[in-house]
Design a protein that fits this description.
27 strands, Immunoglobulin-like, five-stranded antiparallel sheet, Uncharacterised_YfhO, 28 helices, transmembrane helix, alpha+beta
């Protein structure tokens, strides 16, 4: 490609990208953002802000403010911590902030620039695809048209709005195909190494998706050779494996910690049946994932085009991936053999774009009469799908506008195609290509407005919304700032989040007790689900939230403040007293706090507490330390009595027999009347196992505490049916449920007088000197009372290196999910340093990878 053509492609890609964002440019001018109200605001924006702040302050690995604490470099590698597009953006923003051309970026800033980053990213995607198609022998204008079909796919818009980091994969895919072709045609591995290094480094999940596609592409490529002078399959395999291994080594500094974080996360197995085939949507005009352009349908039914090899390759790939799109089993495979997720369809758009480009290249070989049957078949498909939408789904009216637009575009493309085939003039071919690009622009802008803005609520995400009480209200922030000003302890946590926005602590800049992320430390999940059975008010595999209003846990985990809407104060934890309030919100302060550094003489072991109640486990954590690995005799722990057999159980608008509960009207259920408690009893812990027999999701209330359970079919269901809820002591305890049939068993009821907590809080212990600098923690502790262990409320996680008095020691998992340090008598100079798992090995592999790449490229040159 000549230099002028390169420049023209780049400029055209940028202009086309801007045109593809026309709807959102208008929205942005009116004060709205190109981002979804759910994951976009709950994850994408907060994580960008958080990572930028950490990186710009020189902290690259660990943060106490990441949920309950965690290695964000590895756990957020799925999102942005290793995203090349984000790192480039952050670098530019940091430079502009350093020279004081912009103020310190906030959430509004990151929401603002999504549109501009998206325009640039899409222009790079179109350019990369055009170069890949051009290398395969397709003319420049045809290659650009095919690249436009790829770049202007609806999945790009969907991903930018919901999960922006997904769209980076669309940039690496054309480079991967280019690198693969370079090996097959020339035996040169440079582009292949570059593509895989970028993908491995950028995001392990989409590297996996591309690996599946690579196998498919190579298989089809071997069945359909494109030239007579390609490398032997043996040489290709050698280069593929060698270059792939080198790419893995180059990216190891990112890839290995990210993959470790993925495997150290826990997702319950997806138990629902996954069918091999199911009609999931209408790809002609009403799909959330992919809408096939009219020209592609016409080409796929044109027999003559299959005589040309490049077209045949892309056409067969397109047809094969179209079939896979309708297979939930394939969607599961692309999602790591887990729940079916339709995230890979941009690959179908790419091969579809290649099919269009190759078809345009060979269009001159077609006679006008050869197009009549394809046009009739394609037109019939539009009518057939419209009928099916009416009869099967009943959604035809909802998508009437999309149908009309798609049919009109189809007719326009057919007219331009017939006109070219009639006259065979180059200007008509150019006009046809312009028509194809314009039709893609119309579809993508309509999708932005009708699907993304109106149906998925993007039209509510405005500057005002981001400053409202539903996201980051001024009234809320004033109370948070008041807490910060009054509190000198840097480790203090605040139990507060806006409903369903578990990353509120990141948004409002405080140390919180909640997190929403697809990947985080599984020890914390097990701590919530199994060990302490903490109710989060919303069942989810990708969230943890608050501490169930359980004072013992608040004190153990440094939660000194509890903030809520005034209507929810009835559930305030025991020992928390009013501290500050505004018109709508109130803050309570913990009167029974415990120090950040705690030591213990008494040791308990997890295996001895397996059958104990969560309340017993809390008492063990307060009275000593609970260790995972048993190395001695456990201290005796008094067992709290289950008083359910002393309680009277009655039903209300329900029937309860043999663990079978039939609720006849909403808010019916059972009432437990416990024996009259002593004056020392402050709270009850209610424990039961519950399932709805029809598998539907439901909400339940225990007195005035409300929580929700997901449907049995949900891919975000934890699989844990046990519920433990703390409520203030009352004369009666009601469990209220929606109308339906339930399996309710293992009812337990415990009284809590907080004797253990009061004893611990009353101890006058001199806190050792603690210094925490980024990923390094220093503690100077003088052990004069023969304490056995030090316990820190830092989640137990691979990556921490412990030294005591200069000697390497092993960290132990303590209190089910946190950090335990064995102590020596006398002075203990403790040093904790965190690096991502296998980081040193990863760095060495990266250096060796660059050396290997240089050697391989020079050798083949």
């Amino acid at each position: 490609m000549r230099k002028k053509q390169v420049i023209l492609v780049i400029i055209s890609s940028l202009l086309l990208s801007a045109a593809a964002h026309f709807f959102f440019i208008q929205q942005w001018l009116d004060g709205y953002f190109m981002i979804g109200p759910n994951d976009g605001l709950s994850q994408m924006i907060p994580f960008k802000q958080f990572i930028y702040e950490q990186y710009s302050n020189g902290n690259f690995f660990y943060s106490w403010a990441f949920g309950l604490g965690g290695g964000f470099y590895s756990q957020l590698a799925y999102y942005f911590s290793t995203s090349i597009v984000f790192l480039a953006t952050a670098g530019i923003v940091f430079l502009l902030e350093t020279v004081q051309w912009i103020d310190s970026p906030d959430l509004l800033f990151w929401a603002d620039i999504i549109l501009f980053v998206s325009i640039l990213r899409l222009s790079f995607i179109i350019t990369a695809a055009a170069f890949a198609f051009r290398y395969m022998g397709i003319g420049t204008t045809a290659a650009f048209t095919g690249a436009a079909v790829y770049g202007l796919c609806v999945m790009y818009v969907r991903h930018v709005i919901f999960w922006e980091f997904f769209t980076d994969a669309m940039l690496w895919l054309p480079i991967l195909v280019l690198g693969t072709e370079k090996i097959i045609r020339e035996g040169k591995p440079g582009w292949f190494i570059a593509a895989w290094s970028l993908m491995f480094f950028n995001n392990f999940y989409f590297a996996y998706v591309h690996l599946i596609f690579l196998f498919i592409y190579i298989l089809f490529r071997w069945m359909i050779p494109l030239s007579e002078q390609e490398c032997t399959k043996r040489k290709q395999l050698r280069l593929f494996f060698t270059a792939g291994f080198i790419s893995f080594c180059i990216s190891a500094v990112s890839f290995i910690p990210a993959v470790y974080a993925f495997f150290n996360n826990h997702r319950p197995a997806y138990e629902a049946a996954i069918p091999f085939f199911r009609m999931t949507d209408n790809m002609l005009y009403a799909s959330k994932y992919i809408i096939l352009p009219a020209i592609l349908l016409l080409f796929l039914f044109t027999k003559t085009l299959y005589k040309e090899r490049t077209y045949k390759l892309f056409a067969w790939l397109t047809l094969f991936l179209m079939i896979l799109h309708f297979s939930p089993l394939a969607a599961s495979v692309f999602n790591g053999f887990s729940a079916p997720q339709y995230r890979w369809e941009y690959v179908l758009s790419f091969v579809g774009g290649g099919c269009v480009a190759a078809g345009l290249q060979s269009l001159h070989t077609i006679r006008i009469k050869q197009l009549l049957l394809p046009a009739a078949v394609a037109g019939g498909l539009y009518l057939l799908m419209a009928q099916l939408m009416t009869r099967v789904t009943g959604l035809a009216f909802e998508f009437q506008r999309q149908l009309v637009i798609s049919v009109l575009l189809f007719l326009c493309v057919v007219f331009l195609l017939l006109l070219y085939l009639w006259k065979k003039q180059m200007y008509l071919l150019l006009l046809l290509q312009i028509g194809i690009v314009l039709s893609s622009l119309v579809i993508v802008n309509e999708y932005e407005q009708l699907a993304m803005s109106e149906r998925f609520g993007v039209n509510i995400v405005s500057r005002d919304f981001l400053q409202s009480s539903e996201y980051n209200g001024t009234e809320q922030q004033r109370l948070i700032n008041q807490i910060k000003k009054s509190e000198t302890d840097p480790f203090t946590r605040i139990d507060w989040m806006i409903d369903f926005r578990n990353n509120t602590p990141i948004v409002q800049h405080f140390n919180g007790t909640s997190l929403y992320s697809s990947i985080f430390n599984e020890e914390l999940l097990f701590f919530y689900w199994h060990d302490l059975q903490i109710d989060m008010r919303r069942e989810s595999v990708s969230r943890y939230a608050t501490l169930g209003n359980r004072t013992n846990l608040h004190s153990l985990l440094q939660t000194k403040y509890w903030m809520r809407d005034k209507q929810q104060t009835v559930n305030a934890p025991y020992g928390f007293v009013p501290f500050a309030e505004s018109e709508r919100y109130i803050v309570f302060k913990n009167t029974l706090p415990l120090p950040f550094v705690r030591t213990a003489q008494d040791v308990f072991y997890e295996e001895d507490l397996i059958d104990r109640s969560p309340l017993d486990k809390e008492h063990a954590m307060l009275s000593g330390v609970v260790l995972e690995k048993k190395s001695g005799k456990s201290r005796f722990l008094p067992k709290e009595k289950n008083i359910i057999h002393k309680s009277v159980i009655r039903t209300k608008n329900a029937a309860y027999t043999n663990d079978h509960l039939e609720v006849k009207t909403d808010n019916g259920g059972i009432t437990m009347i416990p024996p009259v408690p002593s004056a020392e009893v402050k709270d009850y812990y209610v424990h039961f196992d519950i399932q709805r027999m029809d598998g539907s999701g439901f909400a339940l209330k225990v007195n005035k505490y409300r929580t929700t359970r997901k449907p049995a079919s949900s891919i975000y269901k934890t699989g844990i049916n046990t519920v433990v809820i703390r409520i203030p002591a009352a004369e009666k305890i009601t469990i209220q449920l929606p109308q339906g049939t339930y399996k309710l068993k293992d009812l337990q009821l415990y009284e809590e007088d907080y004797r253990e907590l009061h004893e611990e809080a009353a101890k006058k212990v001199t806190q050792p000197e603690v210094q925490w600098d980024k990923n390094k923690l220093f503690i100077h502790y003088k052990n004069e009372t023969k304490e056995q262990y030090m316990v820190l409320p830092i989640p137990f996680e691979k990556g921490w290196l412990l030294k005591i008095n200069g000697k390497r020691k092993q960290i132990e998992k303590a209190n089910f999910a946190f950090t335990g340090i064995p102590l020596q008598n006398g002075v203990n100079r403790i040093q904790l340093v965190y690096r991502p798992p296998f980081f040193i090995v990863s760095v060495i592999l990266t250096v060796l990878g660059f050396i290997g790449a240089s050697w391989l490229i020079k050798r083949d040159r």
